[in-house]
Write a structure and sequence with these properties.
The structure holds two protein chains of two kinds. By secondary structure, chain A is α/β, with parallel strands linked by helices. Chain A is built from 19 helices and 20 strands. In chain A, the strands form four sheets. In chain A, strands 6-7-8-3-9-10 form a six-stranded mixed beta sheet, sandwiched between helices. Chain A is globular, with a radius of gyration of 25 Å. Chain B is mainly alpha-helical. Helices cover 78% and strands 0% of the residues of chain B. Chain B starts with a helix and ends with a helix. Chains A and B meet through α2, α3 and α5 of A and α1, α9, α10 and α15 of B.
């Protein structure tokens, strides 16, 4: 018998249908992967099982967990289930823990509540659980506060909370999406071990097909609130019978078509970074003492040719974003020089930087956060035009915005809309339009596709490739996602602890990494081909 | 933590010194000679000069400032021009009314506001919330002297439970004194509670949308426990800020209420001192209030650190 059985579940929030005739089951000890793009209803499925839906939500159908009818259960019955028989892990570890309570309190709280154990007994259990998830007492006493831990460590605490009472079912909603690939691999290993140890059922929700393939015994593919296909992971993904399954799989492995790179190796380099170091002052440990400086970027040199596409890869905190900020002249190096089109940009003031600014633009990760919601697209996309020497007239400006919108595949009528009228993918197109409107020579893109769904991500990668071919723009892609690096760059720089530890042709480095840091990244990165092959072996 | 504490303390002391200079300077600039004021218009120039010497008014400015500031430190505020008694005695007498009044009002306001805020936030948008916030809106809008009159009418005139006004002093035991402070405290507390309840509600609503609230509910805690254990403490920072501001107001901003209830409080003392140009009293009370506000702010800053561990480890 299944542990969790969802039959014909329909869910509406207000008047909006979220799920239609959803079917899903999880057996004890089984990993069920629930895959779908944003808005497909994955998280709402999880919240239905937990009965933590928003007030306006109405669910019909049948959800039974361990013989209990969840949709008919009272709040008291649900409180008894949550945290005891069903645990849940969330996407964003940075905000999932209460900042004013110690990790010990937060892990022990659920234990005390459900078992009526004494504080001391609950804390002892909490201690064991934290040890189990890889937070040993020497470095992570119960008295630590969440802000003293990194994202990966916090996610371990959240897992400890969810698994403290050995639940029968664990629901993990995008548990690794906010983490870098190495941490992702560690967290997935931990989840896999916990499932094996106590024959827990795991409902793993993810938009990442490769992650789910590596983890799940069976897979359910959801689109617009309806199940497209469900079955054994190996068979479902190797046969790809359903067109949507095929579409998802292809989009996750998509490599944009690019002719040979522009002018690689010819003439003067576009960007030269020479021996750049950036130190941040250490934390003040008392009134008169300071910890030693933190070296975020350590003696980095690199060079980019016009039209070249380079990936800067590394784990979170390795210094890649700091380096990018210095290249964009948004931060000053402590030592070393940066030359752009042969001219030094380090140490210049804003007025002197204006010509350089025109030729370098940036695209950020979050297409939601990088626009002022109260301004129209015309104004937002035209923002970089103030660095032009001659201020364009209103008509010229509209003309330029229309052209930029056209180039990124949007309609020129879109310029009178507001950002909220666009989808996530369209917004990322807007930020690309904003970046190319001054006809820059270099675009620095900081994780430009990691917030996007796979099919949208494939389209945006195509757009980057197309603009590279058409306009000869050079890219510096900052990413921890090696599939992105492989898809769109000619060269890759691997950064670790502030230093560049390996560099070379993208395919060579990713296929035969030499340095330890690169090897770790490559091994940890989920790869759909590899995952399917392994599943095929296991499941026959 | 020590660094945070030291930094706050340094800022507090610096503010106090600066404020004392401003208060001193303003009174120097204001026209009018205290000696002339005390002796009257008919006094001769020699008599005035003699008194000026006695009062130390002929000494150079920095010396006079230091003398005055030193006096403040040893609680010697000088003598009132109009009452001819040491200012400290006047202030002490009035504080015996104003300080308990402010504290009772503050306690009442907190006791009313926090549960109302919790109630409203947990029933956001529903009937209970609408009624509670409507009442709070009324509490903010209606002037407190009107509340005071209504309270007098109901509890003093009609039910005869408490006196309608006046203050018997603490000499007759605490009960009569407290009884006469009760109505004014309620009248003061209601509008403050209304503001505080709204702040509590909005701070809680913001916190209730946080991810960690969902984590707490996923642990199996009932909603009420989540509200008290996880939401309230995180919502405390704006509430504490408002509480600090309210205390300062309650200490001296109560002239109207003191008048309605015939209470010999600090507010009335300042009011009278201003009308009678008793500048030394004004000066002293202002300095006292500045010190009180700074002390309360320091307390609020420290309580932030108690509430939020992130402030303890940051600078």
């Amino acid at each position: 018998m299944s542990l969790l059985d969802i039959e014909n579940l329909s869910l509406t929030i207000g008047d909006t249908p979220i799920l239609r005739g959803m079917e899903l089951s999880v057996a004890p000890g089984e990993v069920m992967g629930l895959v779908g793009e944003s808005g497909s209803g994955k998280s709402m499925t999880a919240l239905t099982v937990m009965q933590l839906l928003p007030h306006a939500a109405r669910a019909t159908g049948r959800v039974s967990f361990d013989g209990i009818d969840i949709l008919a259960a009272t709040e008291d019955q649900m409180c008894a289930l949550r945290g005891d028989d069903i645990g849940m892990v969330f996407q964003e570890p940075m905000t999932a823990l209460n900042p004013v309570k110690t990790i010990g309190e937060q892990v022990a709280e659920g234990i005390r509540w459900h078992t009526r154990a004494s504080r001391a007994a609950a804390e002892e259990r909490a201690r064991k659980m934290l040890d189990r998830v890889g937070l040993p007492s020497a470095k992570f006493p119960l008295s630590r506060y969440p802000h003293e831990l990194s994202g990966g460590q916090r996610q371990r605490v959240v897992i400890a909370i969810a698994c403290a009472l050995k639940p029968k079912l664990l629901i993990a909603d995008e548990p690794t999406t906010a983490l870098d690939v190495v941490l992702q691999a560690q967290i997935l290993d931990l989840l896999r071990d916990l499932v094996a140890e106590s024959r827990m059922g795991l409902l793993l929700i993810s938009h990442d097909l490769a992650v789910v393939t590596e983890m799940a015994d069976r897979i359910t593919i959801l689109r617009h609130g309806e199940v497209m296909e469900a079955g054994d992971t190996a068979r479902t993904l190797s046969q790809q019978l359903h067109p949507y399954t095929r579409q998802l799989a292809q989009a996750s492995m998509h490599v944009p078509a690019r002719a040979r790179p522009h002018g690689a190796g010819s003439g003067q380099p576009l960007l030269q970074v020479e021996g750049v170091t950036r130190d941040y002052p250490g934390r003040r440990s008392s009134l008169f003492k300071r910890a030693p400086d933190i070296r975020a970027v350590n003696d980095v040199s690199l060079s980019m040719a016009p039209g070249q596409s380079v990936a800067l890869v590394g784990r979170s905190g390795c210094g890649k974003s700091t380096l990018a900020r210095m290249i964009l002249a948004l931060d000053r190096p402590s030592s070393g020089t940066i030359r752009f089109r042969g001219e030094t940009v380090t140490g210049k003031n804003e007025a002197e930087l204006k010509p350089a600014r025109r030729d370098m633009q940036v695209v950020f990760q979050d297409p939601y956060g990088s626009f002022d919601p109260r301004q129209k697209v015309e104004k937002l996309v035209a923002e970089p035009l103030h660095v032009l020497d001659k201020k364009p007239t209103r008509a010229e400006r509209r003309e330029m915005v229309a052209h930029a919108l056209h180039e990124v595949g949007l309609d020129q009528r879109d310029m009178d809309k507001y950002p909220h009228e666009f989808s996530g993918g369209q917004r990322q197109r807007l930020s690309i339009a904003r970046a190319i409107i001054t006809r820059p020579k270099l675009v620095v893109a900081d994780e430009p596709v990691s917030a996007l769904d796979v099919s949208i991500r494939a389209q945006i990668l195509d757009l980057f490739a197309e603009l590279n071919q058409k306009l000869g723009i050079a890219y510096l892609f900052i990413t921890h996602d090696l599939t992105v690096a492989r898809a769109i760059t000619d060269e890759v720089l691997v950064m670790h602890d502030g230093k560049i530890v390996e560099r070379g042709k993208t395919n060579e480095v990713l296929d035969h990494p030499q340095s330890e840091a690169a090897k770790v990244l490559v091994t940890a990165a989920p790869d759909l081909h590899r995952a399917i092959a392994r599943r095929m072996q296991e499941q026959g | 933590m020590t660094a945070y504490l030291l930094k706050r303390l340094t800022i507090a002391i610096a503010t106090l010194v600066l404020a004392s200079m401003v208060v001193f300077a303003v009174l120097e600039i204001l026209p009018g000679d205290p000696a002339r004021l005390m002796l009257g218009m008919n006094a001769s120039a020699d008599q005035v000069d003699l008194l000026r010497n006695q009062m130390g008014l002929n000494a150079p400015l920095p010396w006079r400032y230091l003398h005055w500031a030193g006096g403040l430190l040893s609680l010697d505020f000088g003598r009132s021009y109009t009452y001819s008694v040491p200012v400290i005695d006047l202030v002490r007498e009035r504080l015996a009314v104003s300080l308990p009044l402010a504290l009772i009002a503050l306690a009442l306001s907190t006791i009313i506001a926090i549960p109302v805020g919790l109630f409203s936030a947990s029933r956001r948008g529903r009937a209970g919330d609408t009624v509670a916030m409507g009442a709070a809106q009324l509490g903010v809008a209606v002037p407190n002297f009107w509340f005071a009159l209504m309270l007098i009418y109901v509890f003093a005139v009609w039910l005869r439970l408490v006196p309608a006004g006046g203050f018997p002093g603490w000499g007759a035991g605490p009960w009569p004194a407290l009884k006469s402070l009760l109505l004014p405290a309620v009248a003061l507390a209601l509008p403050q509670a209304a503001i505080l309840a709204r702040v509590t509600r909005s701070a809680l609503i913001e916190v209730l949308n946080e991810d960690y609230i969902r984590t707490a509910r996923a642990k199996g805690l009932p909603y009420r426990a989540v509200l008290w254990r996880h939401a309230l403490r995180n919502a405390m920072i704006p509430v504490l800020t408002i509480l600090g501001l309210q205390f300062a107001f309650l200490l001296a901003g109560t002239i109207i209420i003191e008048n309605v209830f015939y209470l010999p409080g600090l507010g009335r003392l300042v009011f009278q001192a201003i009308t009678q140009r008793d500048l030394i009293v004004v000066e002293s009370v202002v300095m006292l209030l500045v010190a009180a506000v700074i002390a309360v702010n320091l307390l609020v800053d420290l309580s932030y650190a108690v509430v939020d561990p992130r402030l303890r480890s940051r600078q």
